[in-house]
Amino acid sequence: MKINNELINKVLGISADEPFEADKLALSIHKEIPDTVSFLDDEKFIKDISSNKNIKALFITPQLSQHFKEHTPVKIICDDPRYYFYSLYNHIAENDYTKFTSEIDETASIHKTAFVSETNVKIGKNVIIGPNASVLADVYIGDKSIIMPGAVLGSTGFEYKRTSRGIVSVFHDGKVVIHQNVEIGANTCIDKGFSFRDTVIGENSRIDNLVHIAHAAHIGKNCFIIAGAMVAGTVTIGDDVWIGPHANIAPQVNVGEKGFVTLGAVVTKDVPAGEMVSGVFAMPHKKFIEQLKRNSK
To answer: Does residue 268 surpass a pLDDT of 90?
Structure first.
């Protein structure tokens, strides 16, 4: 669905200051997506908006619009950019959402107490789904993967927006994509993503029991994520990463290839490839140990 003045006026009753056409709604951090419409309601994100050349139009307040004197991006002046952006997002997502009959390979083994949605699920060869597991709509499971008892795949993530017109629930129109030979532990929950970023689990990764993986997280290949860990929304984890028990990874954080997050760590900043981090808030493990020794004297 093309996004332009006509659509915005029809759905929201407002208009941009000049004609435009874009392909998708996306947040300012999604710089890789071309021809987008975004929003700005906080000065701290001005730099993100200014550096994203793919934004064609912007929901923005009259005050913040003064930071963008030029014609690009096109400005859609409004009193509550967040409300209008997510209202339009929900309209497009709900109207573009399509259903198909679920496709389950004949070699898959699904326990009689498991639930598999009748629509929008694909299950590959030799997949095993254990007792009381739930595979909701918009989940793709690759060959030879194992879903253990009580796991929930494809739940709706926690995405609610406080606006001047009340709380807006954001429609999830993305998928959970589980590549081949992945194991998902008992009572683990994996939320589905959005149209601009699915939730992805790379091949050969192992997710322990009682792990939460939020919407739009990307987990690389050969990763180990241990019991009680929480991976927040839009996190990117590289290949061969270890996430220890009860570790927490904050939203939009990147953990580089072969990174190691020790038990109980709270990670709020990017972790470089090959680095081990520990503590609350997490720091390089060697620095953490040195600090621990100083404090214990």
So the answer is: yes
| Cα separation, 12 vs 216, whole angstroms | 27
Please give the pLDDT value at position 102: 98
DSSP state string for 143-200: TT-EE-TT-EEEEPP--EEEETTEEEEPP----EEE-TT-EE-TT-EEE--BTTB-EE
Considering the domain delimited by 3-96, tell me its CATH architecture.
Answer: 3-Layer(aba) Sandwich (3.40)
Tokens coding 232: 């927040």
Burial of 99 (0-12, 13-18, 19+ CB in 10 A): exposed
Which DSSP category does 137 fall into? S
Peptide bond into 281 cis (omega under 30): yes
pLDDT over 90 at 86, yes or no: yes
Question: pLDDT tens digits, residue range 36-68?
Answer: 999 999 999 998 898 899 999 999 999 999 888
Sign of the CA dihedral 22, 49, 215, 238?
positive
CB 125 within 8 A of CB 143: yes
Domain boundaries, the chain: 3-96, 103-294
pLDDT band at 296 (very low <50, low <70, confident <90, very high): confident
Query: Residues 181, 124: contact at Cβ < 8 Å?
Result: no
Q: Share the mean pLDDT of the chain.
A: 95
Instruction: Give Rg (Cα) of the chain.
Output: 21
Q: Which residue numbers are catalytic?
A: 215
Read off the tokens for 292.
Answer: 């621990």
How many beta carbons lie within 10 A of that of residue 224, not counting itself?
Answer: 15
Give CATH for domain 103-294: 2.160.10.10
Residue with tokens 């694909």: 122
